[in-house]
Amino acid sequence: MKEKNFDHVDKFIGWRRLADKDREKVMDNVASHEDWKSCFSEIGPGLLLFARQWARSAADAEDIVQEAFVKFWRRNHKINNRALLYATVRSIALDFIRRDKRRARREATVFAEADPTVEPQFAWEDEAQSALAAAVSCLPHDQREVLVLKIWNELTFSEIGEALGISQNTAASRYRYALANLKKNLQPQ
Predict the structure, then answer these.
(1) Over the chain (189 residues), what is each successive 10-residue block's mean pLDDT?
(2) Are residues 25 and 6 in contact, defined by beta-carbon separation less than 8 angstroms?
(3) To 10 degrees, what angle do helices 168-186 and 141-151 make?
(4) CA separation (Å) from 119 to 8, 65, 107, 122?
(5) Residue 123: phi, psi to the nearest 5?
(6) Are 186 and 131 in contact (CB under 8 A)?
(7) How far is CA 100 from CA 12, 96, 105, 107, 175, in A?
(8) Cα(111)–Cα(113) distance, rounded to whole angstroms?
């Protein structure tokens, strides 16, 4: 039987059953783990710089280079075919750009079709309610936080303490101070 020459084939053809000699020949071309490791350490930084031309961030460039190495390895390309490795990085980077553009278009379409968000605006029934709202907004943040959790969310001091990472006694004190400040700010002059 005539020995087949697979030198011109750059890819492993998975659908064809290999004869024992052919299988050994293919396995000879597979580089060891150490070969891939040294190849990555040698040309990885150059590939990263190359990928950075298309990527918006260093992390994206790293993802592109990693994906290229994995793709290159899975297809059983020869490790010394660096031009093909650079072409793979370029191809994946361009795919990455196209994918980002498609996602941006989809998000813009969804955003354009969505109802505009409206900040909640409360209609105060009288001056007393609007004065109370103004006084609450003037409270220090920590007191206002506890007051809102206690009155509007009906949490216990224990639950407030757990939610804010403070003791229940501190929560009770802040609530007491908030009520005192409200009383002082709302008293008629």
Answers:
(1) 52 49 49 66 82 86 89 77 82 91 87 63 70 85 87 86 90 94 83
(2) yes
(3) 100
(4) 65, 44, 22, 10
(5) -90, 110
(6) yes
(7) 31, 6, 9, 10, 48
(8) 5
Domain with CATH 1.10.10.10 in the chain: 127-186
Q: Report yes or no: 89 and 47 within 8 Å, Cβ to Cβ.
A: yes
Top CATH class, 127-186: mainly alpha
In the numeric block, which tokens belong to residue 171? 């929560």
Rounded Cα distance between 189 and 185, Å, is 9
* CB-CB neighbours of 143 under 10 Å: 20
Q: What pLDDT is recorded for position 157?
A: 92
Q: What is d(CA 185, CA 145) in angstroms, rounded to the nearest whole number? A: 18
Torsion of CA 68, 70, 74, 80, to 10 degrees: 60
The C-alpha atoms of residue 46 and residue 63 are separated, in whole angstroms, by 14
**DSSP character string of 35-69:** HHHHHHHHHHHHHHHHHHTT-SSHHHHHHHHHHHH
pTM for this structure?
0.43
Residue with token string 């996602």: 103
- In this prediction, residue 27 carries a pLDDT of 46
